[in-house]
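not sure who needs this but someone in the group chat was asking about Integrase catalytic domain-containing protein from Lysinibacillus mangiferihumi so here u go. i didnt clean anything up, its just raw.
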Amino acid sequence: MLRNNGITTSMSRKGNCYDNACIESFHSVIKKELIFHEKYKTRDQAKKSIVEYIVSFYNYKRTHSFTNYMSPIAYEKHYYKVLQIAKVV
């Protein structure tokens, strides 16, 4: 049905557990740092809390070892700055 409507799926390749490792790691982090510490009364309350966590904390403040302990936003800014310097040289 998806192919018939021109939609590309994002499912893992058969038998390759590493295809989704990045998002699985993110899910683990958000559960440990937020969800397991809350008692949501409604789905809407949970959605708002999760979006707020991602937008205000995870992207802007939470450091990551993979990005040399920079937040995702700081790393992205650094990445584009390096690209601009490389284009000048």
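also The chain has one domain: 16-88. if thats useful
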